[in-house]
Design goal:
The protein has 655 residues and is an alpha/beta fold. The chain is built from 21 helices and eleven strands. The protein has a domain at 391-604.
């Protein structure tokens, strides 16, 4: 049964890799601090990078209509080691609200449940996570599988409410039951008791950063837009579960098209065709069973418009039994290991590429700046050493000439500083202009304007125009931001070149910054909005105040999250593009000051010349050693970032 833990083994390898990368970043940060080479901005960036690596999460979402065996599949893949089912798995609905399974050091085993009535507020789930008092907390006894099952069964709790209360809470009502909840004979409907659940469970994979997102069926998914606008699109892998005994039903197809395949990213979207053990009826031969399974796989792939290689036939129930009983033959027949292998090869390399690319970009930039600084110090020191070596045996007149020369350079540089300070002032004004368009104040104003327009709208056309106008204004703000970024980049590029030519500073071109990723996020959000809110049926059948509230607690919240990230990244970029210039200017000033003091000392006492030459030679040796150490650190980071996996296509750290 050594192959029964494929995903766990791959995940452990990923966690080890991530730990090695974090150790390399930490070592680089400590070295820069010890040698007083880094600046405050570089230190902040490295600390932020370490925090990201330590808090790194991998989200796997399980999506299915009810009775497809979704909870059983989670049990088979992740919890077979407990010797029993952990998540409740029985006929009918066992998951009634989106449920996250997670664990980190310091957590207590518990279930946190958000009451469904929280929908009556304007608060999103993400926002409510900050307020523990809004959640009901139930402890978990992890020593007993039976008590765990009883406790976890709470995520399936429901309650009966009137039609008006269900609609107030955002649940669509449909007499046919096709596009909403069907009322019973007494005119009431069954809704989830909880809006969201977080299960904190001590599991090795969860402790390493895995988050399992268990979603309810179509009606419940549609009633919680935040799930489709944020949680599902941001999942690193989405596993869509079908049942071999039902095939692709109309509701399955609706879930696939609206919630799984319509996201920003198609990689990491897999389909599990569950319950193939229903074909093991004892009457068919293995070859007949294989033909039947192959036919179903081909049919599912054609219906969902994907390749057959993306469809994995499995028996979750038999896979769980096989793992618990250590039955290698049954495990192979269940095909659960092929699905685990697929999850490993889809999820982990994709996530590793994201982590590697972001880490590589930050580290290579910081290493490059440190190398530039050390090279600038070495160049200045060697010039000073050459000047002093040339003074050996020279008379006082030559020394006085040298002193005048250094003073003249100092005066020229101080004149250049006036231009630098003028650029700083213009840079500050352009930065303020940028945040007039990109800042959260601009977003708040637009959100308020849209809310007022929606509430004032007399007809559905006015509502739609107000919501469409919201996205149009956001796009216009990003366009204006791009123009401001272009102005800032052009001005800094000219300043970098001037200081490089006039004063010999070692300055590469300033790093570029683009708002494209945030614009794409707004495009994705608008597409989700058009499919969920901007339909004739939704606008006609939803009360204006309810629609406005749903729009602002989902779409507007997601837009704000995008703008918050854009603000943070823009602020970091603005600091990063000024930091090299500031550091080099400060370093050049320091070198000029040292040269002047050195010549002054020699002018006052010629016998100190040899002592000063020896000091500079020792300092030169130290700088050469520091450059070698920096290159060694860069090489170790390069190795950590590229193992395991393909070589990094970016420029090597150790240039």
């Amino acid at each position: 049964m050594k192959d029964a833990h494929i995903l766990a083994d791959h995940f452990s390898a990923y966690t080890q890799w991530r730990g090695d990368v974090a150790a390399g970043v930490s070592e680089l940060r400590k070295w820069l601090q010890t040698n007083e080479i880094g600046d405050a901005q570089s230190d902040l960036r490295l600390q932020y990078l370490l925090d990201r690596l330590r808090e790194d999460k991998l989200v796997v979402a399980f999506v299915a209509e009810f009775s497809r065996g979704k909870s059983e599949l989670i049990n088979a893949v992740f919890f077979a080691g407990y010797g029993n089912r952990i998540l409740p798995s029985s006929a009918g609905r066992t998951t009634m609200c989106p449920t996250e399974l997670q664990w980190k050091s310091g957590d207590r085993p518990e279930i946190r449940l958000l009451p469904i009535d929280s929908r009556k507020t304007n608060a999103s789930i993400t926002e409510l996570k900050r307020y523990p008092e809004e959640w009901q907390v139930r402890p978990l006894d992890t020593r007993s599988a039976e008590s765990l099952q009883q406790a976890l069964a709470q995520v399936g709790e429901t309650r009966m409410v009137t039609l008006s209360e269900a609609e107030e809470l955002g649940f669509p009502i449909d007499e046919s039951g096709e596009r909403g909840i069907r009322p019973d004979a007494s005119g009431q409907v069954e809704i989830p008791r909880w809006r969201h659940a977080i299960i904190q469970f001590p599991h090795p994979l969860l402790e390493q950063g895995l988050v399992i997102l268990d979603t309810p069926g179509l009606n419940a998914i549609g009633a919680e837009p935040e799930l489709t606008l944020n949680l599902l699109p941001n999942a690193h892998a989405v596993l869509f579960i079908l049942a071999a005994d039902t095939g692709v039903t109309q509701s399955d197809l609706a879930v696939w098209r609206e919630h799984v395949n319509g996201g920003r990213r198609q990689r990491g979207r897999l389909v599990a065709l569950n319950k193939i053990d229903g074909l093991w009826d004892g009457l068919r031969s293995e070859s007949e069973i294989e033909r039947e399974i192959s036919g179903q796989v081909a049919s599912v792939a054609a219906t969902l418009d994907i390749t057959p290689e993306q469809v994995y036939p499995v028996s979750a129930q038999k896979g769980l039994v096989a793992k618990v009983n250590e039955d290698a033959g049954l495990l192979e027949r269940s095909r659960i290991l092929q699905l685990e292998q697929a999850l490993s090869t889809e999820l982990l390399p994709t996530k590793r590429e994201i982590v590697r690319d972001s880490t590589h970009g930050d580290v290579s930039d910081i290493v490059g700046r440190a190398r530039e600084l050390l090279n600038a110090r070495l160049t200045g020191l060697r010039e000073q050493l050459q000047e002093l070596t040339d003074l050996r045996g020279k008379n006082q007149n030559v020394i006085e000439y040298m002193m005048r020369k250094v003073r003249s350079e100092k005066d020229e540089f101080e004149q250049g500083l006036q231009k630098y300070y003028a650029v700083r002032s213009v840079f500050s004004n352009l930065s303020n202009n940028l945040f007039e368009h990109l800042g959260l104040d601009a977003l708040r104003d637009e959100t308020r304007r849209t809310r007022e327009a929606m509430l004032d709208a007399a007809f559905s056309r006015g509502l739609r125009e107000a919501m469409k106008g919201f996205f149009a204004h956001l796009r216009a703000n990003f366009k204006k931001s791009t123009d401001e970024i272009g102005e800032i980049s052009k001005m800094l590029d000219a300043m970098y070149k001037r200081f490089t030519v006039e004063h010999g500073l070692k300055l590469a071109a300033p790093t570029a910054f683009s708002t494209l990723r945030y614009e794409k996020e707004i495009e994705r959000l608008e597409a989700a909005f058009n499919s969920q809110f901007n339909t004739v049926l939704t606008i006609v059948t939803t009360e204006k105040h309810t629609l406005t509230q749903k729009f602002f607690e989902t779409v507007a919240v997601e837009a704000r999250r995008t703008f918050e990230v854009a603000n943070r990244d823009a602020e970091q970029w603005l600091r990063a593009v000024m930091a090299p210039l500031e550091t080099q200017v400060r370093e050049y000033q320091l070198q000029l000051k040292r040269r002047l003091e050195s010549v002054k000392r020699i002018h006052q006492a010629t016998d100190t010349l040899e002592d000063r030459v020896r000091e500079l030679q020792q300092a030169e040796d130290q700088l050469v050693a520091q450059l070698a150490q920096l290159n060694q650190l860069a090489n170790r980071m390069e190795q950590a970032l590229t193992l395991p996996g393909p070589s990094v296509p970016a420029t090597a750290l150790a240039a």
